[in-house]
Amino acid sequence: MRQASVNSKTVVQFDSVSLRYGNGPEALQDISFSLSAGSFHFVTGPSGAGKSSLLRLLYLAQYPSAGVIRLFGTDTRTIRRQEVPMLRRRIGVVFQDFRLLDHLSAFDNVALPLRVAGLRESEIRPHVKELLEWVGLAEHLDSRPSTLSGGQQQRIAIARAVIGRPELLVADEPTGNVDDAIAMRLMYLFRELNRTGTTVVIATHNEALVARFDQPRLHIAQGRLAVAEAA
Amino acid sequence: MLRPLSSSLPLAYDESHRFLPLLVALMVFLAAMAVAGALIVHGLIGRWDRDVTGTLTVQVPPPAEAADTASSLRERLHAVERVLADTPGIASAQVLGRDQLVGLIEPWLGSGDLVSDLPLPGLIDVAVAPGGAIDITDLARRLAEAAPGTTVDDHQTWLQRLVDLGRAVEAAVLVALATVAAVTAATVIYATRTGMAVHRRAIELLRLIGAEDAYIARQFADRAFALALRGGLIGLLASVPALLLVDWAARRVGSGFIIDLSVPAHGWPLIVALPLLAALLARFTAQAAVHRATGRLP
Q1: From residue B139, how far is each of B123, B155, B158 by CA, in Å?
Q2: How far is Cα A20 from Cα A74, in angstroms, rounded to an integer?
Q3: Where are the beta strands (DSSP E) in B111-169?
């Protein structure tokens, strides 16, 4: 087995990871790489190459059919079931389809990870308000997602992903539905988080964005890792 | 401002839970009827038991061929009374007058001439002294020697039949309650599974942001509790007039012949607690159903 390089601050480590959905063909084949703490990577590749599958493995929505994934040093094959939620709380996720809960306000959607983690309401409110102000949604605290534009919904989804100051942030096309100005603002938010120690992984089609931020990339092609640039 | 955790899943808008209050209302109504029935029967048996325990009934038949039946029967009764007076452990022996005997059979035979012409036996109501131990077989033998044909009834056969009846009613009520509980639990499981299927993506989201199974289970459990409690209270409110109607109808019949069919006072707390018990059952069932389902997720 090909081993990815490991050091004491490795946050993500994939060793010969493959993923197959049911009896279908392998969506990912023999992927090996590692991400050190505080790194910032783009995941690029054409549609259907396996970017979203790779991200699903990263945020534990999926487990590999073969190979080993270690997150924060923990082997996901051997982790006890009751320890999985704690591991997931260390990971912030921006979903491509946002996955906002429409019966909740923007405020409540963003507050959800903190409530799930059992924080008190007095601790939650100021943080959520501050973050929603930062992403330009201070006027929409009580708005339902369905009443907001796609770009506004995306910002709520991003705010929800970062509210818990995750150690690993995984974002699937986080700037896909916003104009350039908002896209830049969101990228600066991710970079700010990265500077405070969060490891950031962003899947994107936006080559201009990748070029502008000049961060290493993991390029996926036909389910294989074609390029793995070091941080 | 406090925002409840229970709002994380949109269960308030969930059609799959709409019928739960109606079903629980029906179940609590049936349970209230069953429990009330059991309590009434239990109370009746207890009352009859208290009334006849410590008493004996001595029956002295009239002589078959006597010119003066009345005086002959009187003599036989005196003979029996003497035996009873000499028996240790007997507190009192009261001979029932003819009017009392006629009163006892009037509900069956009416109050016409037929009753007054009947050759009625003599009845003696015997009270046993507290702690008194009487050998019924020996007493019956001595009484029969004093007045042939005399019998002693300590009511045990009748009481045993009553106890058997009570046990049968209690068993039937337990079966009814178990059925009601099983139907309620099955309905809650169905509603919970349907709700989980409807909100599959929201549940997946909660899990991906770090929700424990217990957090998700609590959402469903709280909802099931609230709906079952609401339904239970409706069922309880419907059962009270029904029980009062039975009580009223029984009182209308009147007389000591019919029995008191009102729910004993100590039974009401149990009946009033039924909605809460149903709600707790719904809560724990929903919780278990969610844990079982999420336990199979990755």
Answers
A1: 16, 15, 20
A2: 22
A3: 122-128, 151-153
The count of other CB atoms within 10 Å of the CB of residue B264 is 15
Structure tokens at B295: 């336990």
Q: How far apart are CA A28 and CA A63, in angstroms?
A: 12
Q: Identify the residue whose tokens are 């038949």.
A: B61
Contact state of A121 with B1 under an 8 Å Cβ cutoff: yes
pTM value is 0.76
Partners of residue B9 in chain A, C-beta under 8 Å: 101
Answer yes or no: are the C-beta atoms of A101 and A157 closer than 8 Å: no
- In this complex, the residue of A82, A89, A99 whose CB is nearest that of residue B210 is A89
Neighbours of A88 (CB within 10 A): 23
What is the value of ipTM here, to two decimals? 0.88
Of residues A160 and B161, the one with the higher pLDDT is A160
Could you tell me the pLDDT band of residue B1, with boundaries at 50, 70 and 90? Answer: very low
Where is pLDDT greater, at B3 or B278? B278
Size of interface A-B (CB pairs under 8 A): 60
Domains and CATH numbers, chain B: 9-50+159-294 (no CATH), 55-154 (3.30.70)
Q: How many residues does chain A have?
A: 231
**Buried-state track B59-72, b at ≥16 Cβ within 10 A, e below 16:** ebbbbeeeeeeeee
Residues of B in contact with A102 (CB under 8 A): 10
CB atoms A113 and B210 under 8 Å: yes
Beta bridge partners of A221: A224
